[in-house]
């Protein structure tokens, strides 16, 4: 059994990775969380082959101890690590991760595919997206999936938020850089997405939108209006 350290295990991405990994008896998920007693952390105990571990990501010694203790355990050293290296620019941690408009289940399934066959993905950067749509196509797909128009935000409000929320600039820059990289790909703009789809079936925008109205806990992502303007949670 291979030990996989899942950083931010109680966040949406970490949680879906654990769900995908624990479908196999080949993996033990070490679910890293700051608060072992939190309700979200306790829910992870319902999955098989999950062990809760705690460490402060800002404390190198705690992380070193975590790896050393794992190496001494019956399952042996940590074989792989899942970590989301970037979060939306709201000054939030992995455990307060913002809903990102992407099918997080795809992240879990793709992570499982990488751990199952790491050599196939070595030295590769892959965009995980089910399709590429124009704004008009997005709006039409949303109506088909939900029966109503896609919610929108006035442009002046977005401009105001971007002027005040400096941490949000990094997120926008990442989108621009990703778009520029795809446009410079000699294989074509959609080549990376086509490669991703060759590994497994990814969720289309319309399929994702069908769950748009799915009930969730009140403000489960901890987003506040003040946080949007200031870059805090």
From TrEMBL:
**Pfam families cross-referenced by the UniProt entry:** NmrA
Q: Which UniProt keywords apply?
A: NADP
Q: Does the keyword NADP apply?
A: yes
Q: List, alphabetically, the InterPro entries matched.
A: NAD(P)-bd_dom_sf, NmrA-like, NmrA-like_oxidored
Pinpoint the NmrA-like domain residues.
Answer: 2-71, 104-208
Keyword set includes Acyltransferase: no
**Similarity comment: family membership:** Belongs to the NmrA-type oxidoreductase family.
Protein name (database record):
NmrA-like domain-containing protein
What's the source species' lineage?
Eukaryota, Fungi, Dikarya, Basidiomycota, Agaricomycotina
């Amino acid at each position: 059994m291979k030990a996989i350290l899942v950083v931010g295990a109680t966040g949406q991405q970490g949680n879906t990775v654990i769900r995908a990994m624990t479908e196999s008896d080949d993996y033990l998920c070490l679910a890293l969380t700051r608060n072992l007693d939190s309700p979200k952390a306790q829910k992870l105990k319902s999955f098989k082959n999950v062990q809760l571990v705690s460490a402060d990501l800002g404390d190198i010694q705690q992380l070193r101890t975590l790896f050393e203790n794992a190496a001494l355990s019956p399952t042996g050293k940590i074989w792989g690590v899942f970590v989301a290296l970037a979060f939306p620019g709201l000054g939030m941690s992995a455990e307060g991760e913002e809903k990102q408009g992407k099918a997080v289940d795809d992240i879990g399934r793709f992570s499982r595919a990488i751990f199952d066959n790491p050599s196939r993905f070595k030295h590769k950067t892959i965009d995980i997206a089910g399709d590429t749509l124009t704004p008009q196509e997005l709006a039409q797909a949303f109506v088909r999936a939900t029966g109503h128009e896609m919610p929108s935000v006035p442009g002046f409000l977005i401009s105001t938020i971007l002027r005040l929320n400096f941490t949000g600039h990094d997120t926008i820059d990442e989108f621009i850089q990703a778009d520029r990289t795809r446009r410079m790909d000699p294989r074509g703009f959609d080549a990376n997405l086509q490669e991703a789809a060759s590994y497994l079936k990814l969720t289309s925008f319309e399929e994702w939108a069908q769950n748009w109205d799915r009930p969730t806990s009140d403000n489960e992502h901890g987003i506040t209006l003040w946080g949007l303007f200031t870059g805090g949670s």
